[in-house]
Amino acid sequence: xxxxxxxxxxxxxxxxxxxxxxxxxxxxxxxxxxxxxxxxxxxxxxxxxxxxxxxxxxxxxxxxxxxxxxxxxxxxxxxxxxxxxxxxxxxxxxxxxxxxxxxxxxxxxxxxxxxxxxxxxxxxxxxxxxxxxxxxxxxxxxxxxxxxxxxxxxxxxxxxxxxxxxxxxxxxxxxxxxxxxxxxxxxxxxxxxxxxxxxxxxxxxxxxxxx
Length: 211
Fold this sequence. Notes:
Helix content: 25-40%
Oligomer: single chain
Radius of gyration: 21 Å
Strand order of the largest sheet: 2-1-3-6
Largest sheet: 4 strands, mixed
Distance between the termini: 23 Å
Shape: globular
Structural class: alpha+beta
Number of helices: 8
């Protein structure tokens, strides 16, 4: 998960002297899932190339929407190309799927900057550029909750439970469900560019997310 904010301490952009007529985005909190992975039945479970592409594409989507200089909903004061550490915080459990997913997401969020990367001049006059065309290293804090979870089996109390299935189906005829389905239509449609290789526009809805 990631937090981005244009000030050095937590979600705090309220003090920015920023005025604009339209919506102003002061910060962003992203809780992201991992990409496609190998089966848990054959450990170690790892992020596949497809999963790497999925999570990188997701990071690129958020970059284009919230960070790039021409972003449609740019976070006020955020650095567009070269990452500023006080403006971003990322964390993930330390395992073979979630941590690589966080790394892949951040690569899409702040890709290599090429010539924009700062170079260093050593005492002997040698000029040193960062490797990999200005690849940006973004620290990811490790969290203990969920560590190794991709190689751990779990028990689902509602699996094969007739009453749980019935209760879940009843929800689809409730007014609460209909209201959420209607109010989230535009949101789920906005996700289509990220998941159109996996889900059709008809499948991209609150109903499919819930079930």
